[in-house]
Every structure is written in structure tokens, then in C-alpha cells.
Amino acid sequence: MDLQALQSELKRLNLDAINSHIGVDQMEDQFDFVSRLGCSYIIAPAASFYDKESAEKYAEQLNGLGKKAASYGLKVGFHNHLSEFYKDQGKCLMDYVIENSDPETVTFELDAGWAYAAGVDPLAYIKKNPVMWKAIKRYKTKLPNQMSRPKSSSTWSTATTSCTPGRTFRS
Fold first, then answer.
1. Which of 65, 67, 150, 152 could lock 119 by a disulfide, CB 3.0 to 4.6 Å apart?
2. What is the C-alpha to C-alpha distance for residues 95 and 97, in angstroms, rounded to an integer?
3. What integer pLDDT is reported at residue 168 of this predicted model?
4. Is the pLDDT of residue 1 over 70?
5. What is the Cα–Cα distance from 121 to 152, expressed in whole angstroms?
6. pLDDT higher at 126 or 157
7. Helical pair 3-12 and 24-37, crossing angle rounded to 10 deg
């Protein structure tokens, strides 16, 4: 669908495009289209980092893309799944990416369902780095075999109702 057709369809449905999920290898080619569509964020929906070093390199890649995206009025972001919460050297891989990302040009979309499935309390994780989250994906994820629900300080209900429409977080 071309840009005008997509804009017309969104207008007909009374919807705004806030972000677009595009792989990091295709992002740069899509900055113009996504910004003209009206998005503020271009989000990587997946990544392949598996240890501290590769997570830090991924953050460097996001930072580089974020600098380029800024000239289009966009912030680059990342959307987690389960594996980003695997640990290396006692810390979640996602933490390495967040800590090494520039908050001026990089943001994150927390998939609360996958965080919860990984045994991470989504509400506590949001509070840990509140300036980094510009979107929250809220739903229940079926747990992979052999996983159990986390014992956390917040219930699923508390974690998901802390997220309100319009990307507003309330504690």
C-alpha cells in the first residue's frame, strides 16, 4: 500500500500511526516513509543478541540508527520478547541494551506479556528505567513449556492496569 492510500485508510478508521515495527536491517530505508506516515517511533521487533557483548553491540547499532532517524523526527526503539530477559553475568540482556542506549534517540516498547512469561515483574521493570519506555504492549502470553509464573511483587492485573491508553504510565 502506498503512503497516500495508507494515510487515507487510517483517517477513514480514525486512527493515528504512532510507531512502526521494522527490522534494524531495513530501518534506514524506511525512515522517510514512516516519518511521513506520522509515526514518532520506528521499533525493531526482534534482535539476535545472546550475551553481554552482543547486547552492548546491539545498543550501539540502535544508537547509530537513532542518530540517523532523528533527522526525520523519529526515535528508534526495540520491542522485547522472552530471550532478552536471559541473564549473562547476573544481569538480563535487556538491561545491557537499555544501559548502553542513548535515551535522546533510542526508546523501548515493553512487551509486558513476554516479560511476565520470563519471570520479570513488568511494573518493577518499567519503574527501574522509566524514561526509556514510550510504549507498553499489554496482553497475557501463554507460557512456554516448563516455565512457571513469576513470584513478583505485583500481580498481572496490577502490572497491566498501570499502563493506560496514550502511552501514559502511572505508578
1. 150
2. 5
3. 35
4. yes
5. 6
6. 126
7. 60
What does each C-alpha distance from 159 to 97, 126, 127 come to in angstroms?
22, 9, 11
- pLDDT number for residue 138: 59
Residue 161's contacts (CB-CB under 8 Å, 6 or more residues apart) are none
Q: Find the mean pLDDT for residues 64-88.
A: 96
pLDDT higher than threshold 90 for residue 68: yes
Which residue spans within the chain are E strands per DSSP? Answer: 19-21, 41-44, 75-79, 87-88, 91-92, 106-111, 133-137, 163-164, 168-169
For the chain, what percent of residues have pLDDT higher than 70?
Answer: 79
Rounded distance between C-alpha atoms, residue 2 and residue 8, angstroms: 10
Grid cell in block for residue 81: 520478547
Q: Please name which of 57, 136, 137 lies closest in space to residue 93, comparing C-alpha atoms.
A: 57
Q: How far is CA 150 from CA 103, 116, 118, in A?
A: 29, 7, 8
Entry pTM: 0.80
- Going from the C-alpha of 33 to that of each of 8, 39, 74, 96, the distances in angstroms are 15, 9, 11, 30
